[in-house]
Automatic annotation (TrEMBL):
Species annotation: Saccharothrix syringae (Nocardiopsis syringae)
Molecular-function annotations in GO: copper ion binding; oxidoreductase activity, acting on the CH-NH2 group of donors, oxygen as acceptor
Keyword Disulfide bond on entry: no
Top-rank lineage group of the source organism: Bacteria
Protein's name according to its UniProt entry: Lysyl oxidase
Signal peptide: 1-25
């Protein structure tokens, strides 16, 4: 990498094992707890989630553009929304990525855990206890040019009975301490001293190997009491509504959906909102040529739940 990694991020080996069973989480480690924030709310929001306005309906001229300019007519209609994940656990979420050389296009990943005995944070990839199936890849798009962790979050448009209508295209995330959550958390690092404080200082500035496609190692994560958010204006931060009929739907956002990351609890990993979608003129089906966007209304927000729309 073009910047020196801190001592806790020295990478020495690639693991071949996969799956969360490789980690034997006991009382000797401090586990993170990822909480999916309300859909469409900015990072750290603690007001009424039904009043969150970090979402919109965007008509783009070029359906292949990851983040095209919004206009009155075009090829595609997108529901864009901000997504945020908080760490409200006892320990940091810490993920090491590594590859043996530049001939390997992606990095394998491991999750590390802070010791509850002496506060120690693993000093190498080899010491990280949980190999995970997710990988890291370098995103060369001009708005990114850094390494992304795959499959950290996903979102879907679903019918009230749970049928998936549209799935996301955004799969990569660069994790860091982007905002402070308002919860009172005993293990939040409040100063730069100690291993957790040093890690937090690194994660506040983390850019995931920015402009370093040649990197062989990357560290990502979220400290206790902080979160990572992606604004609704970011590439692929949307669901495609172009061929979706008028009706009522759930917009579901899930963090760590496959539970490959070991957490204190998985009960707060999903949030959803119920929306109504109506194409112009009372049409049931979308038009062949889009000249006006559908009207999308937020019916209700359901933080912590994977369903929000009422059936029937």
């Amino acid at each position: 990498m073009r910047r020196h990694m801190p001592l806790f991020a020295a990478v020495v080996l690639v693991a071949a094992l996969t799956g969360p069973s490789a980690a034997r989480a006991t009382g000797s480690v401090l586990l993170p707890d990822l909480r999916q924030a309300p859909v469409g709310c900015g990072g750290g929001h603690r007001g009424d989630p039904a009043r969150c306005s970090d979402w919109d309906v965007c008509v783009v001229a070029d359906a292949s553009a990851p983040n095209g300019d919004c206009g009155g007519s075009g090829e595609a209609v997108r529901l864009r929304f901000t997504t945020s994940a908080d760490n409200v656990g006892d320990g940091p979420l810490l993920i090491y990525g590594s590859r043996p050389d530049t001939r390997e296009p992606t990095m394998s990943a491991r999750q590390a855990f802070q010791s509850s005995v002496d506060g120690r944070i693993p000093g190498s990839y080899a010491e990280a206890q949980n190999p995970i199936p997710a990988r890291m890849y370098y995103e060369p798009a001009p708005s990114h040019t850094h390494w992304h962790l795959l499959d950290f979050e996903h979102f879907q448009l679903r019918t009230p009975n749970g049928q998936v209508v549209v799935a996301d295209r955004k799969t990569g995330f660069c994790l860091g301490d982007r905002y402070r959550v308002r919860d009172h958390l005993a293990n939040r690092p409040e100063n730069l001293g100690g291993p957790a404080g040093e890690l937090a200082e690194y994660l506040r500035q983390n850019r995931c190997g920015h402009h370093a496609p040649e990197a062989l190692e990357v560290v990502e994560g979220i400290s206790v009491g902080y979160g990572d958010d992606y604004l609704h204006t970011v590439d692929y931060q949307w669901l495609d509504l172009t061929r979706v009929p008028s009706g009522v739907y759930d917009v579901l956002n899930v963090v760590n959906g496959d539970r490959s990351l070991v957490e204190k609890s998985y009960d707060n990993n999903a949030s959803s909102v119920a929306i109504s979608l109506q194409w112009p003129g009372g049409a049931t089906e979308p038009p062949e040529r889009i000249t006006s966007p559908p009207v999308v209304k937020l019916l209700r927000s359901c933080p912590g739940k994977d369903r929000c729309a009422r059936q029937g």
